[in-house]
């Protein structure tokens, strides 16, 4: 019996837990079953109570108190502890059947997705036919407001690429919180952000804004002098670095984004259809009989 799941990942505050909550509401409205797993040991509250919660095994707060670790060290300790106690996941997930979508709500510490080896081990355990045998995909969220600052947008895209390579899962990249930008950027203009492209780095958003407002634009003086603090974030060296990152992303051409607005049910449903396609959920479902009472109601 196969199991199906999505791991919701991305940097801190990207909207992961909000997306999990909207996805659960959408699944419930469409009479689909889901199993919500919180894997963030520092999480505080949830719209939907998790069916399985890492905090019942270990919480960052306890680790910080007892081992005198900071929040990031505490999180890493919690994940290492989880790896030593995988039976905690196995016991609950073993009985989940194929009609369920298992939703893993992940923490926002970026090191988990870039270089720390604990997630690949967890993913292997969840997918391995000898263990839980979950058909898993990744939903990597990045805030759509990042597109306004090209350096942030490309750095975020690089972290998405890194997660793709590190985990080797079918991967969906998602620009979240679209409601925050839809009044500022027209739909037509937003299209270019769905695939990172070197042309975007050539554009200076401040210059475009000034041009639109009919104001004369004076570009910042470029300098490579390491003693000049401003030069680090706006100088020629920084521009060259961003151009190189943009070129790298374009060369790999593996990152492209889907848009998500959690305030719009159709948008959440759209992302769910991509998830279903990635893990081929529909193919594994048995045709369902309509229970008698429901059939009578419709008449
Ligand atoms: N406007 C808007 N705000 C959102 C959306 N999704 C999340 N937020 C807000 O963004 C903030 C962070 O959302 P969370 O869902 O907690 O983000 P997260 O990625 O789970 O955060 P961590 O678990 O701390 O990494 C909250 O204040 C949310 O209300 C969205 O689609 N639109
Ligand atoms: Mg969260």
UniProtKB/TrEMBL annotation:
Alphabetized Gene3D superfamilies for the sequence: P-loop containing nucleotide triphosphate hydrolases
Keyword Iron-sulfur belongs to the record: no
Domain of life from the UniProt record: Eukaryota
Pfam family of the protein (one): ATP_bind_1
MF GO annotations: GTP binding; GTPase activity
InterPro entries registered for this protein in UniProt: Gpn (IPR004130), Gpn3 (IPR030228), P-loop_NTPase (IPR027417)
Record keywords, A-Z: GTP-binding, Hydrolase, Nucleotide-binding
Family: Belongs to the GPN-loop GTPase family.
Subunit structure: Binds to RNA polymerase II (RNAPII).
Biological function: Small GTPase required for proper nuclear import of RNA polymerase II and III (RNAPII and RNAPIII). May act at an RNAP assembly step prior to nuclear import.
Protein name per the record: GPN-loop GTPase 3
Upper classification of the organism: Eukaryota, Fungi, Dikarya, Ascomycota, Pezizomycotina
